[in-house]
Every structure is written in structure tokens, then in C-alpha cells.
Amino acid sequence: MSLFLEMKQLFAAMPPLLNLGYVLLVFSILLVVFILKKYQYSLRWLLPFKNTEKSITEDLLKQLYHVASSRRTTDFKMLSGALKIPERKILKIVESMTQNGLIKISGSHITLTETGRNYALSIIRIHRLWEKYLSEKTGFDKSLWHDLAETKEHQLSNEEAEQLYEELGRPRFDPHGDPIPTALGEMISETGTSIAGIPKDTVAKIIHIEDEPRSIYRQIIKEKLHIGAHVKILASENHHVIFESEGHSIQLSTVVASNIQVVPLSSQEVYEEGKVRLSSLIEGEHATILGISTECRGANRRRLLDLGFIKGTLLTLEYMGPNQNPRAYRLRNTLIALRNDQADFILIEKTQYDRTGSL
Amino acid sequence: MKEEDTQDLLDLASELRWEVGENFHDTLVEGIYADAAQIAQKTEIKQGEPNPYSFERKLDQVLTSKKYGFPIMILILSIILWLTIQGANYPSGLLANFFLEFLHPILKTGATHIGLPWWLDGFLIDGVYLALGWVISVMLPPMAIFFPMFTLLEDFGYLPRVAFNLDSLFKKSGAHGKQALTMSMGWGCNAAGVVATRIIDSPRERLIAIITNNFSLCNGRWPTQILIATIFIGALVPDGLSSLLASIAVIGVALLGVGFTFLSSWMLSKTLLKGEVSTFALELPPYRPPNLWTTLYTSLIDRTLIVLWRAMVFAAPAGAVIWLISNIYVGDLSLANITIDWMDGFGLFFGLNGVILLAYVVAIPANEIVIPTILMLTVAHLNLIGAGDGVMFELESTTETAALLRAGGWTLLTGINLMLFSLLHNPCSTTIYTIYQETKSWKWTVFASIMPVVLGFLVTFLVTQIWQVFH
């Protein structure tokens, strides 16, 4: 009681101008929150619990595994640069890792032992399983998956990872197209080739999109490219590649394009020329559904199937909302509204309206 | 089969799984779906063609157009709210007359007749009975008008179009378009609005809709808003314009609530409930004439009576508490007066006062009894003669109420802050209980109850500070 009364007297005694101070205080708190939010990744090193010995060890193992699988070698300086951790600290951890038999040091080169390799694979397994989980069961944007998995990989135990693996229906690939190592440490090696070195007029299928570095990954997903999409190379030059995918022509610089891996189409697959996204349909046009892109997963995919977005169905764009989004489509004599980013997932072929309504 | 062969087979299966790729389950299921659809298409006999220039299509094009879509929507919702508020006045008066003016004295006489001690008589009749009577007479008529009209629009097929129109706004705040429906349902009753979120499939967006539903100004709060706006804001301008300005102020508060719905949805979807809308698909059913009798029956039974029953269950103990705090004395002062004095400093800090805060604490069960409780507490605190200690009442005219409130030290700032706090405070206990029923999570129930109060204190604090800068 007295506390509140005192508070009131305190504030009443202040000149009004000081009260403006409170307003400023609130705004400066908001500003700080905003800055923290914006630079949360660069400020991560400030947090004491992020860089525990366990996660540095695991990050080191992962890095060494990737270095080994691309047949390169590494030393302290490069590791320190890649993990953004001071060399001094790395030295200390490497020492204890050698004692535990995870790594071998010969000269300035560091290589993984068999135990170290298995440990690294189990971390990669958890990372990729978690990304798979995020893509299937949550609504997180795909640009966030990698960072969330980076934290989670140090937290999940192998038993929990096993449980997750069962729950997800024993997946073999993560949403970026990378193989998930099995519990025994088996994994197929990647077989795709970069889209940058493919001759003109070839048709291929995207099997892998590298999610690091982030700026390049953002550029790729902005073009709505995804695993499983068919591409046709229109021009391949020194500095850039131009190709067509789902009715859109896309130009990427060679640096960006080399992060996309493709394979030739298998014998059962054909490149469909007129295949476009449903979002490109304009009012009054008719189309036949060719399928739902593999990018659309989990509950979202099942919902679209339940509503009747099935291969071979005829549909038409009936009208658009006040902001052109969502739009109402008529199929099987029902009106269904979809947001444009959902309509991007549905692949169609524009058709003339067939009066009989059959295929 | 030999053990070895089994192992070989399993190994082969495991190896092949690397080759069949990620999506073989989906491909298989979709193949079956597509085959089934083709068979159905071949055997189905269609009668006639859907006429593309039908009435329905024209209506859709008007109702969802860029030009008319939003004005029509606002017009229809204002008509419903106006009909509810105006139409409820008369039956509310009748019920109040019956319960409070007619039955209450009879019960009192009866109690004296059978010789009930004064405290039991006060506790049961002035406390519990009066709160119940009040809640029924203020709550029942608006709900009995609002819900059937709302259900009629739903049956006709207009509400899905509202969701369709508003979806792009909700998309920006990371929420689901169907939240438009639960939001407008909240204007009738937040508890009903929370139940209505069942139409949203994905748990994340549903939780956002549940938490933000409290920002829809419900039936129980409209009378408070109108009364305070008339007394404090209407009085700023000449008589002729005062009711217009008061209405604008009330609508402003309601729209502010819509603004807070979007803002808090956006903040939730950026922080605690991070993510994008996982599934959005909205079926726009064909327009059809609503079935009047079924609608009346279902909306009365399913929505109105259930909500009313829950409100009564919670209001009865509230009435008892109100009576008790006014009649239990510690020394010279009643518990109510002690609490009011204690909270006054805190309240004034936020441009409110102790009476308002205490009223909001004891009136958690039902927003309807906030004004009667405030009046009763003000009278008790000023040592004036009202209807008696712990007896809620309402004054005949707005002028008398205004005079009483001003005597209690109310200013324009108090009025404005009360209107804001009435929009931004914890949901009533019926709604809190419903939130728990729907989410089955104490964590989210507590969050949904606390978050609006914190926001309310923040907003009233800012308003008070800005006010003091200019005065």
C-alpha cells in the first residue's frame, strides 16, 4: 500500500517534461528489442551457454567430416575461420578430442578417426532429421530450418533421434535433398551434378539445394525453386545459367547455380512443356491439374488432395479477392479459395474448356 | 523362411529405399486418388452445365470486389451490432424490472417473514440472487438477438466470403483468414468466439485466434463503452453533436480492438508462435436460403443458453464476493473500502482509480456487472446512501450517473482510460474456462488471461503520461 502511494507521490512530484522521459524509455526498449531481433545470429556469441564444449566439439566433427568427404584437408586456422571461434579455444578442444580418440593429428592436418566419423554422422543424422521434422510437422519458413536444426542437433540424444525417425516414417532424405545417415552410419554419396555445367536444352530434375551460405540459399528459394522440380536449360554461359522451371524462366549467376544439384530424368519421367503453376492462371481460364509439387508436404498436401486437387481434374479461376489473394477456383462444381503461395504448389496445364467435362 | 534369407530380404529393402526416393508414399497415394477420380468421372452422369452467369456468380463478384467488398462487410456488421444494442434495450429493461424491481422486494419480504438472519438474507438475496438477475437481464437479450442473426448470415453463405475478403490482412499478421469469423463472433461473446475457433484446422493459427479473441469487444462491454462515452466524451461538444461523437468514440474503441487483434497476431506469429500458415483452404459454399427455425433453435440452444449457463455459474459466487467485501468490516472500514484505498495509488498511476480496479477484479465472472459494481463501490467509498452496502444498482438517468462518477473524482482521462481498459483487460472467467476447455493447456490459458491486462496497463499508462505532458 505505502509503496504504491510513495510511487504516486514520486511521479506526481516530477515535472511533466520528465514524464516524456518514460515515453522515450519505452521507445528505447523497443529499439533494443528490435536490434537484438535483427542481429540475433551475429550476436549469438554473446550468449554464454551457446558455445559449450560439447557443441563446439560436435561442430568441429561435422566440419571435419564435410572436409573429408570433399577430399580436402584442413588445419587450425581454417577451422577457426569456418566456425568463427578463436584458434586458442579450438586448440584446447582439439586436445581433449585427441585424447578421446575422435581425431588424429599429423603435422598440421587434422583427420577423423573411425569413432569420430561415426559421431559426426550421428550429429548430421539428427540435424537432417530435425529439418525433416520442421518441414513436415511445423509451419516454420524454410529459411529458418537450418538455424533451428543447428541448435537442436546438440540437444537431442540418439534415442530421441531414433524415436523421431520412427515418427517421421523412416525418411531417407532431408527436405534439401541430402541423404539422412542411418543409425548404423550408412549413407549414399551424392550423385548429382551442378546445374551450372549442363549443356543447353538438357532436361533434368533438381535433387539437392545447398542451404549454406544463407544469402545464396535465400536467393534460390526466392525464385521458388525446389527439390523435385523439372528444369530445362535454355542457355549456359560463363557467368550465368538461364533455365526454365514450371513455366518460369530463371536466370542465376554461376556462383548461385552451383549450389543446385540436378540429375537426368529417369525413364518414367517426362518433361512437360506446358507445365505451369496454378497461380499463373488468369480469370476465366481453364486448366487440367498435372500434380502437386513435392515442395508441398505434410498436412498441407493431404488437405489439397482431400479438396480434390488431383491429377487430371479440370478447374477454372472464378474470381479473385479484393487484394488478388486469395483466389477462388472452381473444381468439381465447388468453389475453393487458395492463397497464391499455395497455388504455386499446384502444377497445371492450361486447356480450352471442354463441354463434356471429361478428359 | 530361413533366418538368413529374411535378413537378406530386409537388407535388400533397406538398400532399395535409397533408390525409390523421398516421396514414394505420396506418389502411391496420389496414383490411387487419380485412378479413383478417373473412374468416377467416366461413370458419373452430369445433368446440364453450371451456368457461369448465374445470380450466385454475380452476387459473389459484388461481395468480393475491390470496390464494394469492404464497405458492404462493414455495413452489414454495423447493422447487426446496432440491431443488437438497440433491440436488446427493451427486453433487457423488462427482465431487469422483473428480476430486480419486482421479484427482489418480494424475496426480501419473504426472507424477513420466515425470519432469516440479516447476513444470510443479504448474502443470498442481495449478493448471489442480484448478480444472477443482473447477468441474465443484461446478457440474455443481446445474445438472443446477435447469435441468430450471425447464424443466419453463416447459413446464407456470406461469412465464408468475409473470411475470403479479409484473408490477405490476416495473412500479413501470420494468421488464418477464418479468424475473421471467430473475431466477429467475439463481438457477440468471447466464449462463443473461442469455441468457434474449431473451424481453424492447424493448431498454431487456432491458438492465435483463441488468444486474440478477447480483443473483440463483446456484448457485455458495449453498454459500458456507450455509457462512459456518453458521459465523458459526448460532454465535450454541444448537445446536438454529443451522441454522434460518443458513437464515433465507441466505434473507435471497437476498431482499436481489431487493430490490436492484428497487431498481437502478428507479434505472436513472429515470436512465441513462429511460423507460416501451414494449411489454408477455404470452401466457399453456394448461397442458399437459410433455414429460419433450425437456425433459431441451434443458435439459442448451442450458443446462447450454454454461454448464459456458464456465465451464471460464475456470476453467483461473484455476487457473493461483492456482498461480502462490502459488509465485512475491519475496524471502521469495510474490506471493499480498504482495498479501494490500497489500490487507489496504483490505479491513479495508470489514470484509473481504486474503484475501477476493484470492480474489474470482482467482476471477472461477467463484464456485465462492471458498471453496477463501480456505482455501488463509488457510493460506498463516498459514504453516500445508495441501495445499501453490497447491493448493486443502476441509476435511472445518465446525468445522475455522471454526477455520481464526477463526485468520485472521475475526469475525462479516467473515462478514456476506462474505455481502453474495458477493451484491454483479462477475459471474463467464462471465456478463461472455455479457453482451457479448448486448448487443454494451463500455460496458454494463463498467457491468454494475463497478456491483455499487461497490454491494458501499458496502453493506459502511455495515455496517462501523454495526457500529463499536455496538462
List keywords for this structure.
heterodimer; A: 359 residues; alpha+beta; Arc Repressor Mutant, subunit A; six-stranded antiparallel β-sheet; 12 helices; 20% strand; B: 471 residues; mainly alpha; two-stranded antiparallel sheet
Distance separating the two termini of chain A = 79 Å
User: Over the alpha carbons, how many angstroms does the gyration radius of chain A reach?
Assistant: 26 Å
Oligomeric state of the chains?
Answer: heterodimer
**Could you name the CATH topology of the largest domain in chain A?**
Arc Repressor Mutant, subunit A
**Residue share in β-strands of chain B:** under 5%
Proper CATH architecture of the largest domain in chain A: Orthogonal Bundle
Overall geometry of chain B comes to: elongated
Strand content of chain A: 15-25%
**Greatest contact pair?**
A-B, 66 and 63 residues
Low-confidence stretches of chain B: none
Question: Residue ranges of chain A: pLDDT <50 for 5 or more in a row?
Answer: 1-5, 13-17, 355-359
Largest sheet of chain A: 6 strands, antiparallel
